[in-house]
Every structure is written in C-alpha cells, then in structure tokens.
Amino acid sequence: MTLHSEAAFERFTKALGESEGSGSWFPVRQEDINSFADVTHDHQFIHVDPEAAAKLSPWGVPIAHGFLTLSLLTHLMASIPQDPARMEGVVMGINYGFDKVRFVSPVKVDSSIRATSVISHVELKGDAIQVTRDVTIEIEGEEKPALVAQWLTRVIYS
C-alpha cells in the first residue's frame, strides 16, 4: 500500500453513491458500425445493410452492435471529468471486467450516445484500488438507455 493509494481510496470512498456526471455526446455513424463489423466478422444485415434494415428490421435503420456500444465505454467515460486528486500517483488503469452488462435498447445509426457513472463500490488492493461503477449509456432523445453495466477497473498507484 502506498500513500497515493491510501489517499485515493479515501477520496473514492467519499464519492460512493454520487454521480460522477455525464460525458459528451458521441455520434454513432454507419462507418463506425461497418468498421466494427469488419473487425468482429459480424456482418448481420441489421448492422451493415441499410436497405435490408429498412425492409426487415423493426427499427427501419441499421443499429450498432451491442458490443460496439460496450467497447465505446472507455472513450465515453474519458469525457466525464474526474477528481484530479484521485489520480495523483497513478501508474496505470486496468479494465478488470464487468459484473453485469445489459443491452437495454438498440443504438440506431446516426444516434448520439453518452455515458453517466456512479461509483458503487471501492476496494483497496495493495497498491491498487478496485472501483466498481454503475455505468449507463444514454441515447440522445430516447427514454430508455442503450446499456447498463457494472464496470470494474483497477487503478495502480506508485
């Protein structure tokens, strides 16, 4: 355990249950969906074929892959301002996984999404802090979110 990790643990613990805020809106374009389809080899028509989606899907337009939405969490979370004091002495952050992920609503092509976050659990692990965040990805103009997840990260301190 380091002085940085101890001090950060106290700061994270004080923030338990509080919203960290909302990030910036990010547009999900057909080019992003197509690139993700190429990388993952998931070319289902509901993602990559606008004409077939217009005729056959319940949404009438292509939708983003659920895993594309999930993979954007790192980018979306980066636009939520963090308390700089919690980051003093940080060596690196590690994606530790998820306790829960639910794809609530599809993200239609050309929709914009953003993340909101609440710190729900903090645990001191030697020179690291494991932080669990309840993350929601909102869809601009939609009532239901695209995704809800419990995301675990580890922050390693010097």
Structure description:
Residues 13-135 form the MaoC-like domain. It holds the Pfam family MaoC_dehydratas. InterPro entries: HotDog_dom_sf, MaoC-like_dom, NodN-like. The structure is a single chain. The chain is α+β, with helices and mostly antiparallel strands and 158 residues long. It is 29% helix and 36% strand. Strand 4 and strand 5 (128-139) form a beta hairpin. The protein is elongated. The mean pLDDT is 95.
How would you briefly describe this protein structure?
Residues 13-135 form the MaoC-like domain. The protein has 158 residues and is of the alpha+beta class. The protein has one domain: Thiol Ester Dehydrase, Chain A.
Topology:
Layout: H1 3-14, E1 19-22, E2 26-27, H2 30-40, H3 45-48, H4 50-56, H5 66-71, H6 73-78, E3 90-103, E4 112-125, E5 128-139, E6 147-157
Antiparallel strand pairs: 1-4, 2-4, 3-6, 4-5, 5-6
Structural descriptors:
alpha+beta, Thiol Ester Dehydrase, Chain A, six-stranded antiparallel sheet, 6 strands
Q: How much helix is in the residues?
A: 25-40%
Order of helices and strands: HEEHHHHHEEEE
Distance between the termini: 9 Å
CATH level-4 homologous superfamily: Hotdog Thioesterase
Quaternary state of the chains: single chain
Kindly report the average pLDDT value: 95
CATH architecture annotation name: Roll
Shape annotation:
elongated
Q: What radius of gyration results from the CA coordinates? A: 18 Å
Protein structure class: alpha+beta
Structurally, the number of domains stands at: 1
CATH fold name, please?
A: Thiol Ester Dehydrase, Chain A
Beta content comes to: 35-45%
Text of the CATH class:
Alpha Beta
